[in-house]
Amino acid sequence: MTWFLGLGIAGIVLLVLSLVFDGVLEGAFGGVLDGLFDGLLSLPVIAGFLSMFGFSGAILLGGTGLGAGAAAGIGVFAGGASGWLAWKLSRVLMRDQTDATPRQEDLIGTAGSVVTAIPADGYGEVLIRLGGHPVKLAARSAVPVARGAEIWVEAPLSSTSVAVRPVER
Fold first, then answer.
1. From residue 113, how far is each of 53, 69, 150, 153 by CA, in Å?
2. I want to staple 118 with a disulfide (CB 3.0 to 4.6 A). Which of 25, 75, 124, 137 is the partner?
3. All residues at 6 or more sequence positions from 166 whose CB lies less than 8 Å from its CB, including other chains
4. Rounded to an integer, what distance in angstroms lies between the CA atom of residue 39 and that of residue 64?
5. Helix (H, G, I), strand (E, B) or coil at 15
6. 96 phi, psi to nearest 5 deg
7. 3-state DSSP call for residue 117?
């Protein structure tokens, strides 16, 4: 029973190490297993197998009259199921896509409003919505624009400033 508990604890420790060091342990092997078995030999999968094998074997051995062979057989089955679930879950999570990061070119044509008045050929501040989030940027205009006026972004000037023109009504 001590061996089974030791394997279960080793699996938990390996899982914690793989979560804390996130890929550092896989890199320690120099990419030897890259692409082999399509992630089936990743540390979370191995940790899931080891911990379930050890703990289910210990439970079966301690709770029933069956011997170590039966406990090992059930442990292999339970560990295999746990490892397979960890593999499937990691594949689903790795395929999760996020929206593209907005670029400066995405600002062109965006409507907004003036927060700080913009003097002719000077700088003020505008508030625009980019990707559903309010963004406050420095703004430059060839003509004066009053506070609260609607504007269109004509071009990005830098990562924090844009050229704007007032919306004419």
1. 62, 74, 4, 10
2. 124
3. 141, 143, 145, 149, 150, 151
4. 35
5. helix
6. -65, 125
7. coil
Structure tokens given for 104 = 């400066």
Which tokens hold the place of 53?
């094998």
The structure tokens 């999760």 sit at: 96
- Count helices and strands (H / E) in the chain: 4, 5
pLDDT in tens, the chain (169 residues): 888 889 899 888 988 887 787 666 556 655 555 555 556 677 788 888 899 999 998 998 888 878 888 889 988 999 999 988 988 887 787 777 777 777 778 888 889 999 999 999 889 999 998 878 898 999 999 999 999 999 999 998 887 888 998 987 6
pTM over 0.90: no
